[in-house]
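Field notebook, page 165. I keep forgetting to write these up properly, so this time I am using the form the group agreed on. The chain and the ligand, flavin-adenine dinucleotide, are recorded exactly as supplied. Prediction of the bound pose follows.
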Amino acid sequence: MTGDRPLLHEAGDEGRIAGYNATHGETARFRRKTPLFINFCDPNICAVGLRWNQLDPETTAVGQIRFAPVGRALIMGKNRGVLRVYADKASGRLLGSEMIGPKGEHLAHLLCWCIERNLTVGDLLRMPFYHPVIEEALQAALYDLYAKVDTKNEGGLIELARLPE
Ligand SMILES: Cc1cc2nc3c(=O)[nH]c(=O)nc-3n(C[C@H](O)[C@H](O)[C@H](O)COP(=O)(O)OP(=O)(O)OC[C@H]3O[C@@H](n4cnc5c(N)ncnc54)[C@H](O)[C@@H]3O)c2cc1C
């Protein structure tokens, strides 16, 4: 570990890179994974991908939801916090997210994997969302974000892909 990303999974990747280069007689470079930070306080504080201060306000769209009215958070008695999702305004591609809220560690993983796959906000809204789960908070933030990006889903419905005639 270099101290640059002082996290266990990053240290593991750095060990693999160092081991590979030490045994292959070359200095290969590897693309690092999407940054993921989780603070295990209650509620969780999490950050994924680009942070607020790294965003270009000209080219970025921001979606937000507060946890106050979210059904599952209410049931758990933990309906406090806020979730923000960031996307490239033109393409709708997800760039990052920051949140303080219940079960944030799971939402952060979900979003991190979506960013790794280069998914857009429209792609995410075509995923199934069960009820009543905390992921519905993410769904609401995604709808807020979707309204602010230029690239929309084709076929007439946001949530469903159209079948061929
Ligand atoms: C309190 C605390 C909480 C943390 N919480 C998290 C968290 O929630 N999530 C997360 O992802 N990361 C967390 N981390 C960071 C994470 O533990 C480190 O990023 C990770 O352990 C670094 O792995 P490493 O292999 O580089 O070093 P280490 O895990 O420190 O391993 C280095 C090993 O080398 C040994 N060693 C040192 N010098 C020598 C020597 N001269 N000869 C032989 N052996 C030697 C040490 O004894 C040690 O076993 C936390 C760290 C701390 C301290």
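OBSERVATIONS:
- Residues 8-24 form the longest helix (17 residues).
- The pocket of flavin-adenine dinucleotide is lined by residues 1, 6-9, 11 (CB under 6 Å).
FOLLOW-UP: compare against the apo run.
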